[in-house]
Amino acid sequence: MTAMSVHATAPFTVADLEGMPDDGRRYELIDGELLVSPAPGLRHQTVGLRLYRLLDDACPADLYALAAPFAVQPDQLTEVQPDVLVARFAELTEKNLPTAPVLAVEVLSPSGQSIDLTLKRALYQRMGVSSYWIIDPKVPSLLALELGPNGKYREVAKAVGDEPFEATRPFAVRIIPNDLLGRLRVR
Length: 187
Known about the structure:
Blueprint: E1 4-6, H1 14-17, E2 26-30, E3 33-37, H2 42-58, E4 63-67, E5 71-75, E6 78-80, E7 84-88, E8 96-97, E9 103-107, H3 113-127, E10 131-136, E11 141-147, E12 153-160, E13 165-167, E14 173-175
Parallel strand pairs: 5-8, 9-10
Antiparallel strand pairs: 1-3, 2-3, 4-7, 5-6, 7-9, 10-11, 11-12, 13-14
């Protein structure tokens, strides 16, 4: 299955998501448009969870790192689940994050690449997510975008393979894309 967008005569709402089946797929909303993605594969999950562990270990006390699924729900027509996110601890609720995270990370998958590169990028920019990282587990590579003074994303770094990415925002952490593959690197 590839990721798909479902159109309806009326916009979908967050309340509609509660009626979606628990079938392993990811159900998200962007401006009332339903996005359905298949369950992530082995490389996707490995990269996302290894990155989460790195971020969680380096995360200062006022911030909190989370791995998907966890809802970012700024309004009743939008709910997304970044593969990894970092939020201000004080802004988290038990159920969701009702405001922009300080970092959103999407791990590309063949089925959802266009969603992550276009729809989610535009949404995160509009929401004011100050840092957006896109990881390609096939290459592997990490593209880091940050909001500029004009409110638009600009590329601040790209690391490929064994090249280190020395993040300073939202906090200092060193990431080597190949290391995110763990044991899959030798496969």
